[in-house]
Amino acid sequence: MIEVSRPEIWRYLGYRGTEPDETVKGLIEESLSELEKAAVPRQVSRRVSCTIDGDLLTLGGISVKSRSLAKHLSGCEEAFLFAATIGTGIDRLIRKYSRLQVSKAAVMQSAAAAMVESWCDSCQQELEQNLSEGIYLRPRYSPGYGDFPLSFQRPLLDALEAGKRIGIELTDSMLMIPSKSVSAVIGLTADKKSCSVHKCASCGNTGCPFRKI
Predict the structure, then answer these.
(1) Largest CA distance in the chain
(2) Which of 7, 83, 127, 184 is the S-S candidate for 140 at Cβ 3.0 to 4.6 Å?
């Protein structure tokens, strides 16, 4: 069972500084109950070397140019390539309610988005627990944040064999299937203080409606 923060779902639904009414809260609980039954959470990661030369990074032999990622991974000599999903059953459930009950489909979208992020948080905590003492993980940084190109999804997922291992595929427009999936780079560092910044703070998309204050 994946523990999902209700306020996080509210945030995805657009509630900022207020709570939804009891009707919406009821839909959230109904949605979570169905999502939990449909979810098949899976993840895969690979620890790789990380070298940075200006805004050019090499991650386990894969190169990418990104000033924002270089800044985010500054001081890291290693990183995890990471991908996770909660499965295709979630997409089928959302499609079903898109036909039957649009209001519930909207709530389910938000609940599923919060669920996959919570799953990723759990995975990252487990990765960190297995590290040597004094080594910590930076927040996840996903293709599409800042100037980190979305096209990096393909080499990242290929390096992880994510299609074969956890069933994540890419469309021609670099969107992941299942849709409730995440790919990311996670830096390893001895500087614990540099690990406390939330991923929203390190993302260049300051106009994002889901951005945390």
Answers:
(1) 53
(2) 184
CB atoms within 10 A of CB 22: 8
Global pTM value: 0.90
Rounded Cα gap, residues 38 and 101, in angstroms: 18
Q: Residue 85: beta bridge partners? A: 42, 181
Burial of 213 (0-12, 13-18, 19+ CB in 10 A): exposed
Question: 3: which 2 tokens?
Answer: 């523990």
Digit-by-digit pLDDT tens for the chain (213 residues) are 899 999 999 999 999 889 999 999 999 999 999 999 999 999 999 999 999 999 999 999 999 999 999 999 999 999 999 999 999 999 999 999 999 999 999 999 999 999 999 999 999 999 999 999 999 999 999 999 999 999 999 999 999 999 999 999 999 999 999 999 999 999 999 987 666 655 554 444 444 444 454
